[in-house]
Design a protein that fits this description.
With 469 residues, the protein is mainly beta. It has four helices and 28 strands. It folds into two domains: 54-119, no CATH class; 138-441, YVTN repeat-like/Quinoprotein amine dehydrogenase (Methylamine Dehydrogenase, Chain H), CATH 2.130.10. The two termini are 38 Å apart. Residues 1-46, 106-133 are annotated as: Disordered.
Length: 469
C-alpha cells in the first residue's frame, strides 16, 4: 500500500501569509556513406554485374598476356633485337588491345540523368540528428495546498490549451496561451478537498470529483455549474475518465460507474471488480476498452461489448483481470501508435512499468524502475514513454520504446511527482509534485506541422443544460 495523503497546511498553522497560486516561483535551488565513389572520376559505373561475352574471347592472346610478364623477368638481359621482336609480336597479336575480355556491344547510356543527379546518388545520406532534450524545466509555478495523496488525480490539460489543477478546495485554470490564471470553483469544507479533475473532449467543460462522494460538471466559458451527479459512489471520487458523452468515475468504494451526462438518469453501467479504491482510469483511443487500476494491486481491462446496462448484472464482467503488480496501480497510459498496447506503473512496493497486450491479456515486458511510479505519458510523435517517480530521486524519466533504454532523467522536484499532463500538441508536459510546484518540461520536442482539425463529434454534448441542477 502506498503512502496516502499528508497534511499540507503547515503555512496556515504558522500564521504565514498564503502564497498566490500558479505564480512564477522564485529561483530554485557521422554515419558513413553506404556507397563508394570510383577512384577514377572519368570512370562510369553501369551496374553491379559483369557478364563476359565468350564470343569475344581470344584464348591465344590470353595465354600470351598471362605468360609474357614471366618470360620478361626470366630474360631480363635479352638482346635489343629480341626486345624489338617482342614488341612487334605483341603489336601484331594484340592489335593494340589491352583487354582480354570485352563486351560485344557498349551498354546504353542512362536516360534523363544529369551530372548533378549522378553526383547526388554518391553523396552520403544525412544522419538523423538526436533530439535535444532540455534537462531543466521551462517554467515553474507555485502550487500551494496541493494535496499529497498518491491515489488522487488533480491535474489535467484540456484540448483548448487550458490546464486545470485542484489545490485544496479550489480548482484553478491556467491558460497556456496567455499565461493567465483564473479561479473556477471553491467548494465548502464539508465537500472538500477536491479529489479529481478531468476535461471533457470539447475542452470547455470540466468534471470535478469531491471528497463528499459527488461529481460536479462545470462550463468554463461562463464559470457556470451545469449539474451535480449525486448518489454515484459511497466514498470519495478519486479518478475520472471521459469517453465522448460518457463520464466514467472511480471511487474509494471500489466501484466504477459510467454516467451519460446528457440524460437525467445518468448511471448507465457499473463495473465491480476492485475491492479497494480505484485510483487509475483510462479509456483506449478507440473508446472500446477501459483500463482500471486499484489500491488492491489489480489491473482490469473492461470491454464495452461485455458491459450490462443493469448495474447488478455488470458485476465481474471484465475482459482481463491482471494480478502481476505487487502495489497499487495508478499510472495508466494507452499507446497512441498501437491500439492494444497498455503501459502501467506500480507503487512503492512494486516500482515496475509493465506493458500489456489487452487483446490477449499477456504481459509483454516488465522494467524495474527502482522507485514508485506515479504517472505515465506516451510521446504522440515518437516511440517514447515518460514516467514520473517518487523517492529517492523524484525524477521524470524518458524511455525509448521498446528497448526501454533511458534517454533522459529530468530532476528539479524535491518531492514525489504525483501528477503529469500533456499539452494538446503533445510536446510539453506539466508535472505537479508534493513539493507544491507545477513545472513545465519541453521533453517531447517541437510540434509537427498543424493539420486541418476535423469537426468534433462531441460538439453540443452539454447544450441541454440551461440551468443549475
Amino acid at each position: 500500500m502506498d503512502a496516502g495523503s499528508h497534511s499540507i497546511s503547515s503555512e496556515k498553522s504558522h500564521g504565514l501569509a498564503p502564497r498566490p497560486p500558479l505564480q512564477e516561483a522564485g529561483s530554485r535551488p557521422y554515419m558513413p556513406s553506404l556507397s563508394t565513389a570510383s577512384r577514377n572520376p572519368s570512370a562510369k559505373c553501369y551496374g553491379d554485374r559483369f557478364i563476359p561475352d565468350r564470343s569475344a574471347m581470344d584464348m591465344d592472346m590470353a595465354h600470351y598476356l598471362l605468360t609474357e610478364p614471366k618470360k620478361d623477368k626470366e630474360n631480363a638481359a635479352a638482346s635489343p633485337s629480341k626486345e624489338a621482336y617482342r614488341r612487334l609480336l605483341a603489336e601484331k597479336l594484340l592489335n593494340n588491345r589491352t583487354r582480354i575480355l570485352a563486351f560485344r556491344n557498349k551498354p546504353p547510356e542512362p536516360e534523363n540523368v544529369s551530372a548533378a543527379d549522378t553526383a547526388s546518388t554518391h553523396q552520403a545520406k544525412p544522419a538523423k540528428q538526436r533530439r535535444y532534450i532540455p534537462q531543466s524545466a521551462e517554467r515553474t509555478l507555485d502550487a500551494p495546498d496541493l494535496v499529497d495523496d498518491y491515489y488522487l488525480n488533480l491535474l489535467d490539460w484540456g484540448s483548448k490549451n487550458v490546464l486545470s489543477i485542484a489545490l485544496g478546495d479550489t480548482v484553478y485554470l491556467w491558460d497556456a496561451s496567455s499565461g493567465s490564471t483564473s479561479e473556477l470553483v471553491t467548494v465548502d469544507e464539508d465537500s472538500g478537498p477536491i479529489t479529481s479533475v478531468s476535461w471533457a473532449p470539447d475542452g470547455q467543460h470540466v468534471a470535478v470529483g469531491l471528497n463528499s462522494f459527488d461529481i460536479q460538471l462545470w462550463d468554463t466559458s461562463s464559470n457556470r455549474l451545469l449539474r451535480t451527479l449525486r448518489g454515484v459512489h459511497e466514498s470519495r471520487v478519486g479518478s475520472l475518465a471521459w469517453n465522448n458523452n460518457i463520464l466514467t468515475t472511480g471511487g474509494m468504494d471500489g466501484n466504477i460507474v459510467n454516467n451519460d451526462v446528457r440524460i437525467r438518469n445518468h448511471v448507465v453501467q457499473t463495473y465491480q471488480g476492485h475491492s479497494q479504491e480505484v485510483c487509475g482510469l483510462k479509456w483506449s483511443g478507440s473508446g472500446q476498452q477501459l483500463a482500471s487500476g486499484g489500491n488492491d494491486n489489480l489491473l482490469h481491462i473492461w470491454d464495452v461489448s461485455m458491459a450490462s446496462s443493469v448495474p447488478s448484472a455488470g458485476r465481474n464482467q471484465w475482459l482481463h483481470r491482471l494480478e502481476d503488480h505487487t502495489a497499487a496501480v495508478k499510472a495508466l497510459a494507452w499507446c497512441p501508435f498501437q491500439s492494444n498496447l497498455l503501459a502501467t506503473g506500480g507503487g512503492g512496493s512494486d516500482r515496475c512499468i509493465k506493458f500489456w497486450n489487452t487483446h490477449t491479456g499477456a504481459c509483454l515486458n516488465s522494467v524495474d524502475t527502482g522507485s514508485q511510479v506515479c504517472a505515465l505519458l506516451w510521446n504522440k510523435n515518437e516511440r517514447e514513454l515518460l514516467s514520473s517517480h517518487g523517492f529517492t530521486q523524484n525524477q521524470l524519466t524518458l524511455w525509448k520504446y521498446p528497448s526501454m533504454v533511458k534517454m533522459a532523467e529530468l530532476t528539479g522536484h524535491t518531492s514525489r511527482v504525483l501528477f503529469m499532463a500533456q499539452s494538446p500538441d503533445g510536446c510539453t508536459v506539466a508535472s505537479a509534485a508534493a513539493d507544491e510546484t507545477l513545472r513545465f518540461w519541453n521533453v517531447f520536442g517541437s510540434p509537427e506541422a498543424p493539420k486541418p482539425a476535423a469537426k468534433a463529434s462531441h460538439t453540443g454534448m452539454f447544450n441541454s443544460f440551461n440551468h443549475l441542477r
